Amino acid sequence: MTETTSRRGGGHGRIAVGGAVLALVLTGCGADVPNGPMDEDELESTYLTGRGVPEDWSLADDPSGRDRYGDPIDDAGPGDSFSGDPDEQCQGALDELESEIQDVEYVAEADATYTKEQASVNVTAYSTQQEVGISEPFLAILDDCETEFLDSMSASAPDDLSRESLDTEADGVAFVSDEGSGTLLAFATVSYGKNHLGIWAGSEDSRDMDAVVELVDAVQERFEEGPDAGEED
């Protein structure tokens, strides 16, 4: 279902926060995703590379993995980026997310970026020592904190952004402006117990929406195949 609420927003300057913001998680059920956490090498191996990258998209850099064993999950929400004090409803959503991640620790993390002309999609794959179920509180932030979230973005974005559902297998949200170049910002999340995938996308042309959806679905499908799946070079 499409939502058409319009808010004053911002652009890509602050949207890099999205790499951390959407890092967690809708529960998924991929049969080949390991039950236990993956290390950085295993996470890297779940990215689309070589001929596996959909047509017209390019892998900007090789996937980069990091050992983060024991680091707390302290960057899963956008609250730190808000320029002012959130209202009561928004603060409640932030508190709910904080409660879910309070005792959760990383094992490893890996990220990569795919580009297509003016569009860019950043993918963060990571594992945690504990299982987490925070999709509902995370998505609630994008709903209950919509004003604070959009106001925290750079002033370079259009003044009119409308929130829509992102039509991907993973639950997601898109912020679209039809003014000027038609800016697109999109977020999607999926989680499989202790292994998680977070995606944010940006484009100066909202007509890239279909291409972004196609890439997000392909990225998720590859992640679900797990680290032991073959990949063409």
Task: Characterize the structure shown.
By secondary structure, the protein is α+β, with helices and mostly antiparallel strands. Helices cover 26% and strands 27% of the residues. The protein has helices at residues 12-15, 18-21, 40-44, 88-101, 135-144, 146-151, 209-225, and strands at 2-7, 58-59, 64-67, 106-116, 119-128, 161-165, 171-176, 184-192, 195-203. Strands 1, 2, 3, 4, 5, 6, 7, 8 and 9 form a nine-stranded antiparallel β-sheet that branches. Helix 4 packs antiparallel against helix 5 (135-144). It is globular and about 45 Å long. 48% of the residues are buried.
SSE arrangement:
Blueprint: E1 2-7, H1 12-15, H2 18-21, H3 40-44, E2 58-59, E3 64-67, H4 88-101, E4 106-116, E5 119-128, H5 135-144, H6 146-151, E6 161-165, E7 171-176, E8 184-192, E9 195-203, H7 209-225
Antiparallel strand pairs: 1-6, 2-4, 3-4, 4-5, 5-9, 6-7, 7-8, 8-9
Rg calculated over all Cα atoms: 17 Å
Beta-strand residue fraction: 25-35%
Low-pLDDT windows of residues: 1-30
Shape field: globular
**Main sheet, how many strands, which sense, barrel?**
9 strands, antiparallel
Number of strands: 9
Q: Count of DSSP helices? A: 7
Q: What structural class do you assign from the helix and strand content?
A: alpha+beta
Residue-averaged pLDDT, rounded? 80
Q: What level of helicity do the residues show? A: 25-40%
Helix and strand element order: EHHHEEHEEHHEEEEH
The termini sit apart by 38 Å
Features:
single chain; 233 residues; alpha+beta; nine-stranded antiparallel sheet; 7 helices; 27% strand; disordered N terminus
